[in-house]
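Format notes (please read before filing issues)

Several people have asked whether sequences and structure tokens are stored in separate files. They are not. Every record keeps both together, in the order shown below: the sequence lines, then the token lines. Line labels are part of the format and must not be stripped during preprocessing.
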Amino acid sequence: MSNKIFTHSLPMRNADFPTLVDALDYAALSSAGMNFYDRRCQLEDQLEYQTLKARAEAGAKRLLSLNLKKGDRVALIAETSSEFVEAFFACQYAGLVAVPLAIPMGVGQRDSWSAKLQGLLASCQPAAIITGDEWLPLVNAATHDNPELHVLSHAWFKALPEADVALQRPVPNDIAYLQYTSGSTR
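Then the structure lines:
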């Protein structure tokens, strides 16, 4: 990966966008983007906003291929990564409600996390879950009683076919996401 230095070529706008989709659409007009670092502060990935927008629009159509409807909730269980951001914005472009959920952070928390996850899922009632491969066995264990729930790894999500639909832009009063904790990703 080559380290690209992102430059902000657009005038700064201070939270005057009606929706998150409008904010990303504006950011995608520039060559700027975001960096992702590992736990040792080493650059792990870079994502230009133009690329994020294209991937989010394609991801939105893939989510809609699951027959999800506007306002359905999609739980996102992942570390902070480009895949998480792409799935989050795919929900925005599809009119779905992203629900980032915390992952176990410390030694010994994995065992208790399954019960906590079951409670969170009962509360937010997602129609789908997107998670990293590392968490897939735990998510499957927590959701085994719900066969209608779409549980997807990032790879499975990217392999879904794109629905042949026009994306419905969100409007300002649509719910964009539900946040259960300030530490949903690491």
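For reference, the curators noted about this record: Helices lie at 20-27, 49-64, 82-94, 109-124, 136-143, 154-159. The first strand starts at residue 33 and ends at 37.
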